[in-house]
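User: Can you fold this complex?
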Amino acid sequence: MSPLATGTRRLWWYAVIDSGSSIPDLVGVDGISPVFLLPGDHVDLVVSDVESDVLVAATGGQVDERTAGLAVEHDRVVGVIARNCPAVLPVRFGSMVDPASAERLGDATGNRLASALESVRNKVEYGIRVVRRPKPPERTDEASSGAAYLAGVSRRRQAALQQESAVSQRVAVLGSALGRLSDASTTLATRRPGQVVNEAYLVAVERADEFVAVAEAAAADLAAAGADLVLTGPWAPYSFAAVSGSAAQ
Amino acid sequence: MTASAPAHVGLDGLVDVLDRVLDAGVAVSGDVVIALAGVDLIQLDLRLLLTGVSTETSAALGAAT
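Assistant: Here's the predicted assembly.
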């Protein structure tokens, strides 16, 4: 434990799980402190102590590769919990609580969290990303005349339009298929160059194999059309842990 | 196509983690959370490190506080 100068014991908060759950032995984002539970009436909070320098890296000052590493470590802990518990609500990076926080949840927030837990019970998140391959660089030495050059430009533009259309059609078909196999979907924030899709899907565990098979088949189809599909997961249901606001509400 | 574990390494993998860890998840303030990282700044600064990607930061953390 690392009390800060303020005297307040701050705990790194990873996730919300069912009240009365048990978790495996693992260490927190600092690589040292054990992860443990703060039991509450409605839900349990998954937390660990953190060294003060970790708090500084996460909550203020310079943001650098260490902060990125903490994000990965946060996800590691959440992932272990998710693989061992049927229902997990991941908590946003950088949330700190004190040892009495679970007791202060109150009925309103506790019930909201318990209800949200039900919505993700036995479900996982998958990510689907589709990115168009960049066009090959235009050759300037292939044209023997101005007319031939313009004809080449026209051909390339036509090919690009055809590729765009082919990818869009396949993405639409894929979206419908994955929508039928999932309980919800949402668009993720990051936009990469050439990106057509960056979507998260909430999928029941018993449908995960079918979901992955559909994505794999679509990947081959999209590759032929000039786009790459990347499937990530299974993740804890970060993008569907839709609980926010003040505990005082 | 790759089916990758969440804790994978590499730029794309890190961005996938950030998409979730920073942009999503339960956010409760008030009496329960005693400190909340300046996630909007972390998110922005980290993505500045990751050249070639951008994000819609405005909508990401409106409900965090």
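Residues 161 and 167 of chain A are 10 Å apart (CA to CA). Chain A touches chain B through 71 residues (CB under 8 Å).
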